[in-house]
Amino acid sequence: MTDAVSCALPTARPAVDDRTWRGPDAHERHDILRRTRSVAIVGASDNPARASYFVATYLTGSSPYDLYFVNPRAETILGRPAYASLADLPVVPDLVDVFRRHDDLPGVAAEAVAVGASTLWLQLGSWNERAAAIAEDAGVAVVMDRCLKIEHARFHGGLHLAGFDTGVISSQRRILSR
User: Fold this and answer.
1) What ranges do the domains of the chain cover?
2) 8 neighbors 125 (Cβ within 8 angstroms)
3) Comparing C-alpha atoms, which of 64, 67, 94 is closest to residue 80?
4) What stretch or stretches form a coiled coil here (predicted)?
5) Topology (CATH level 3) of domain 3-8+23-155
6) Model confidence pLDDT, tens digit, residues 43-61
7) Sign of the C-alpha dihedral, residues 75, 144, 119, 162?
């Protein structure tokens, strides 16, 4: 299974041609991740087959972030407490990573604004310009249709630009002999 597939959500979203919102470029996304200290995963699941579980597992073992899981139907995820809502968290998360249906995204954006989050991150496959407007109007940075796991790994040497692990930790390209 490729990383892109493992992070994808089956959502109804506008065609690429209908998109008017422009998100942060790679340098801005890198800056967001560098500033982030705590991440709340909304829609986190205790099911290993779900993309949110895969991302949570990666972030738990490969990132410096303090992780908080939001799922009103779960008590624990990866041995950590799960919270019913962002408002129930013991901290204000810097970044809210969202694994929810398209129609739920504006409500999650409003909740992220209400708790004082700095960034709303909609996972790969999630695009909702109304949710982006809610967050940006309140001064919250927005990233849409990007996988937090993939972006973190890419910026920290774990992924080739094509999306796979090269096993090489270097900024130099290998020269292939002919």
Assistant:
1) 3-8+23-155
2) yes
3) 67
4) none
5) Rossmann fold (3.40.50)
6) 999 999 999 999 999 999 8
7) positive
